[in-house]
Write a structure and sequence with these properties.
Order of helices and strands: HHHEHEHEHEEEHHEHEHEEHHEHH
Number of strands: 11
Helix content: 25-40%
Radius of gyration: 20 Å
CATH architecture of the largest domain: 3-Layer(aba) Sandwich
Oligomer: single chain
CATH class of the largest domain: Alpha Beta
Number of domains: 2
Shape: globular
CATH superfamily of the largest domain: Periplasmic binding protein-like II
Largest sheet: 11 strands, mixed
Strand content: 15-25%
CATH topology of the largest domain: D-Maltodextrin-Binding Protein, domain 2
Length: 355
């Protein structure tokens, strides 16, 4: 039985209350008036005729299919396909396909950079009004094209079976401590926008030559947050920098992992979703994105994606703190300018000999 149905009263109450007055997977008459153009029931009917939706994402790998299974249960007749990559290669892929006129993605969700924000003016995204939009603050919406559905924070984790409490890291500079030589894990900055943002923040904190220091400490790179946390659990690494996508689900499963959000601060990365303007299945794309904005979809995104969601009234995660409870949080988008992003990626590639 799906663990989603076994959550506490607050989650059940949240879903039931929202569902009573708002659209669920297929919409309700009270919400149809919020969407311009065809009635929402017509969009849903057209989506079923299209019969499928392609979802580009950078969500926690193990959680994507359980979440999409719930979507399919609520939307029979719409099959799902998905491609999961790190944020940087995912953006590169979409941009390349768009420029080549080869349109595959229907919906995309990722941590954006200037390429994605610039895409609003280049025809990447459809402008529309999801029926669920009234449940989100205006700060989470950009031009009715991009919708911030969740956000991630950067932290440090460690294997509690191999690291004594007295030795557990507390600050970013602990990643450079020689006692962890060969036992530090990280997602490479050239793969992830979120990692580029925390590197920029390290520079703002006065941490210089982070790439050189981590190279001297024989840092081990793993592809994505899922790979990092599995390496820590296996003992291949003892401590690691982590974008906290997979942290809450694994802590719920009893993984022996400690974590800290350093007192010096961390960066926040909003995950934005959009319907591709040239989506092969534009109606199914709208149905999927709107479902992700419903109470049930947000609960599934939080439960299986492991990240705090943006919908007003959503319950907190069970094992990791809410963003408001962290010591200091900085908007990663605000500090990662295009020039700075290019400089960070180029420098780290050079230091580690990656072309």
């Amino acid at each position: 039985m799906d663990r989603l149905r076994r959550r506490g009263l607050s989650r059940r109450t949240f879903i039931a209350t929202a569902a009573a007055g708002a659209v669920a997977a297929t919409g309700a008459s009270a919400q149809q008036a919020a969407a311009p153009g065809p009635a929402w029931s017509e969009v849903v009917a057209a989506a079923r005729r299209e019969g499928k939706v392609m979802f580009y994402n950078n969500l926690q790998p193990n959680g994507i299919e359980p979440m999409l299974r719930l979507f399919r249960e609520d939307n029979p007749g719409i099959a799902t396909e998905q491609i999961r990559l790190g944020s940087n290669p995912l953006i590169e892929r979409f941009q390349t396909e768009f420029n080549a006129g080869r349109n595959i993605a229907d919906v995309m969700i990722t941590f954006p950079d200037e390429r994605v924000h610039g895409g609003r003016g280049q025809g990447w995204m459809a402008r529309w009004t999801p029926p669920e939009l009234s449940n989100f603050d205006a700060a989470h919406v950009k031009d009715n094209m991009m919708f911030a559905l969740h956000h991630a924070r950067e932290c440090i984790i460690w294997n509690k079976n191999q690291v004594r409490d007295a030795d557990a890291p507390k600050e970013w500079t602990d990643l450079f401590d020689p006692k962890w030589r060969g036992r530090v894990a990280m997602n490479p900055p050239w793969r992830s926008v979120a990692v580029q943002q925390i590197v920029a923040y390290w520079e703002d904190l006065g941490i210089r030559e982070a790439a050189e220091k981590l190279r001297a400490n024989q840092v081990r790179f793993f592809e994505g947050s899922g790979g990092i946390i599995q390496a820590v659990i296996r003992g291949d690494a003892r401590i690691a920098h982590l974008t906290d996508l997979p942290l809450n689900p694994l802590l719920e499963d009893g993984a022996p992992v400690g974590f800290v959000y350093p007192a010096s601060g961390t960066t926040l990365s909003p995950g934005y979703a959009f319907v591709a303007a040239r989506a092969p299945n534009p109606n199914a794309a709208r149905v999927l994105l709107n479902w992700l904005m419903t109470a049930k979809g947000q609960e599934a995104l939080q439960r299986y994606g492991g990240l705090p969601v943006s919908r007003r009234g959503a319950p907190p995660l069970s094992k990791i703190p809410a963003t408001a409870a962290l010591p200091k949080v900085v908007d990663g988008e605000a500090i990662l300018t295009p020039a700075r992003q290019q400089q960070i990626v180029s420098h780290w590639r050079t230091v580690f000999g990656v072309r």
